[in-house]
Structure formats: C-alpha cells, structure tokens
Design goal:
This protein has 14 helices and 26 strands. By secondary structure, it is an alpha/beta fold. Strand 24, helix 12 and strand 25 form a beta-alpha-beta unit. It is globular, with a radius of gyration of 21 Å.
C-alpha cells in the first residue's frame, strides 16, 4: 500500500495570515454529547480532520445522523435510533477520544458497551478514573472480551474525586459531567480538569438546558435535569494548532498573523515563548508572532491547564533545538511522550532523555533527514524542524498529523513553506 508522506525543504521564512480551525479536543466530546439531546444539534467550526471523521462514523453507528450543511459548513447531528449501545473495536481503536461516548450512552440509554480505546503511542492512559465516576453515579461496570460494559437503571448524583497519578483527567471529567447531566440530584466533581475544552463542553451542555457551574475550576457542580434539547453552538479555536503556528513563525524567523486565536487559552505557552525571544502580540482581531534572531534556552514543565500544555511539548522542543544554550523539558502529564527525541536527533539535534526529562543542547542548524512520526504532536514537531533544517526532510506516517490538523501542509504552503504531500512513504 502506498502511504502519503511530507517532503519539507527548509530555509523559507514564513509570512502571511493563517486562520485557526475549531478545536478538535473540544469538538469531539461535544459531538458525543449530542447523544443526550432531543432535537437537532448544530455545531459551527468543527474541523475537517480524521478524528472528527472517525467519531462521526461511530456516532452514525450509534443512531446519530451526522451531516455537513452545504450552505455554512456547520455540522448537524440528530439522534434517529437509540437501539444500538455498542461502540465497536474497529472504530474505537483508531482514536482514544471514542471513550467519550460512554457517559452519554449510559445517561441516555442506560447501557453502554465501548471497546477499550486506542490512539497515539504517548504512554499509559488508563480509563479507571472514568469507571470510578460512573460507579459513583450508580452504574454497574464489567469488562467483557475487551469491552467496557456499563449499565444502570437510574443514575444518581454523587460527590466524586477524579484525581489521578498525573493530576486531573480531561476526558474523565467530560465523561462524568455528561453522565451527571441527566442523573437524579446534584453531582460534585472534585479535582475536575480545568482545560478550555472542558469549559466549552460545559457551556454547550448548559446551552442545551443542563445546569452546570464551576467549570474552569477544580470543583464542578451539576444539577441533574430531566432532558436536554439541541442547540446551535460554535466550538472554541484550537489552542494547540495556534501554538504550532506560533512555533512555525519563530523557528523560521518569520512573521505570521493568526486569526481565530484565544491567547487566554495559551498564557503559559506564550510566557515561555516570550522568555525564548518570540514576540506574541494582539493587533485588533489578529495575533502577530515574530522572533528575534537569537533564541534563548528555557526550562519547561508540562502541567494541567493553566500550566504548559503537554500537546505543545514536542513543538517547543523543536524550537529549543535551535536555542543558544541548554534547555530542560520535563513531562509531567505523559512521562513517556518522547518518541520524537530520536527522530529530532536524526536531524542533528543534541537531545538526551533522562526519565521524564529531556536535556536540549542547542545547535546552530538542523539537517534534513528521513524521519518517522510516532504520534500526532510529534508529527507537528518534525514538520517544524523540517521547516528550519538545511536540505530536505521526508516525514513518514503523516496519517498521525491528519488526525488533528486540517490540511496543515496547505496552510504552511500559503505562508511560504516548501512542503509537499507525496505518495510512497514508509510504514
């Protein structure tokens, strides 16, 4: 089978304007929440990427009609059939976020059977916290032939603590919150995730008639309601895509104007960029990013929001490879999320991994080389490194990057990058 790959020739300074798509990690649980709703849900700014397509496929198998409106590109979701409560392995294995149908199915249909999820190879991400939340709400949980089977005659509000070994859980918070919207009584989630994507889901559910407060803080309170109605809703901009293009400007010593960008969702990231020598400023409705020629080293530790996002760790590492001095990057969310280190070293970087930390010794230039993408954000880091490298870089397994970015090659090419999507890549 012929696989696509990116051929990136570095050296071009990127300039121009790019519009950021809606946030994949916000859109996916909001799409899943349509299972809870009576009537039509219309979502705007849902990105056209592989993960959205995978979840749309899963939802249609679960009886939800999913269509794109031709007139305005909005996604329309309507529940047509509530008989099927099983999310098959063939779909779920493609994407970990498929687990977010578990809460809505349990709350609405009182039964959910979901295959253990797949996704990126970025380390262990157990679902035990999700199941702990459902048990607190009164569900019975079994594991049958690799499937999670959850059932309940009635869900009842409860107090629950959702902390784990690496902090709060975004999808676990989302799942518990969705299930609790139709439970009897009040649910209190302690150590809830505070990420903007969780806040966006809560805002969507409230627009449908839910009663949720405290979202954006570690304590979320949900008063159960009898039903939810469909609504029209716009998904927040993708903060990770925005951060990726900020690094693209910096690593090529260019200047990029970014549309549809929420800087309040990127405070920790912008703080580190500023320390490195990257200028990020709002000019009207645009965010303008440019860079000093000299990049300073930095110490970075990933943390739950509002800390530095793990999904931008690989991209910032690519930038720090060119800083003048030694940087230290510590991964506190997914300590094994360093498969891109070996590939960046193939391009001339000087990186040394020590447990959950990577020591980055800055080099004067990167060198183009054949590399292999291991996960979604590592793919983006290799593209960024290729933009700054001398010569050509062949990036294999770009199906990872297509899961989370909307035509990133087209967007980069419009900014002046020399990047081509070709056939004939390696597995």
């Amino acid at each position: 089978m012929s696989l696509p790959y990116f051929q990136v020739t570095g050296g071009n300074r990127l300039r121009g304007t790019v519009r950021i798509s809606g946030a994949k990690n916000a859109a996916l649980p909001i799409m899943a929440a349509s299972i809870l709703c009576e009537g039509e849900v219309v979502l705007r700014d849902v990105p056209h990427n592989a993960d959205v397509a995978s979840l749309a496929d899963l939802l249609q198998r679960l009886g939800v009609e999913v269509t794109r409106r031709a007139e305005d590109d909005a996604l329309r979701l309507v529940v047509r059939d509530e008989m099927n409560c099983k999310a098959e392995y063939e779909v779920v294995r493609k994407m970990r976020a498929s687990i977010c149908v578990l809460g809505p199915l349990l709350a609405r249909r009182r039964l959910a059977q979901v295959s253990m999820p797949g996704g990126c190879a970025i380390g262990d991400r157990p679902v035990d916290i999700h199941l702990r939340a459902f048990r607190k709400l009164g569900a019975e949980i079994d594991l049958v032939s690799g499937d999670i089977v959850a059932k309940a005659r009635k869900l009842r509000g409860a107090e629950m603590f959702l902390g784990g070994p690496f902090g709060s859980t975004v999808l676990g918070t989302a799942n518990a919150m969705m299930a609790a919207t139709l439970a009897d009584g009040m649910t209190v989630i302690e150590m809830a995730a505070c990420e903007p994507e969780v806040v966006d889901l809560a805002n969507f559910l409230n627009a449908c008639g839910a009663s949720i407060s405290g979202h954006g803080t570690p304590r979320i309170i949900i008063e159960g309601v009898k039903e939810l109605k469909g609504c029209e809703y716009r998904v927040i901009p993708d903060r990770i895509e925005a951060g990726t293009f900020m690094v693209a400007a910096a690593i090529t010593n260019g200047e990029i104007k970014i549309e549809n960008c929420r800087l309040d969702h990127l405070m920790a990231f912008v703080d580190r960029l500023s320390a490195i020598g990257v200028n990020v400023e709002r000019q009207g409705d645009l965010v303008v990013v440019s860079s000093a020629r000299r990049l300073e080293p930095s110490d970075v530790t990933t943390q739950p929001f509002p800390g530095f996002p793990t999904d931008l760790q690989a991209q910032l590492m690519a930038l720090l490879c060119l800083a003048e001095g030694n940087s230290i990057i510590t991964e506190k969310i997914f300590p094994d999320r360093f498969l891109h280190v070996a590939e960046l070293n193939r391009m001339g970087a000087h990186l040394r991994k020590e447990g959950p930390t990577v020591i980055v010794e800055g080099v004067k230039r990167m060198i183009g080389a054949p590399v292999m993408a291991s996960d979604l954000r590592a793919s983006a880091a290799l593209v960024l490194a290729g933009l700054a490298a001398r010569g050509a870089t062949k990036i294999n397994r770009i199906y990872h990057i297509d899961r989370g970015y909307v035509k990133i090659d087209d967007k980069l090419r419009a900014l002046g990058a020399d990047i081509e999507r070709r056939e004939g890549g390696d597995e």
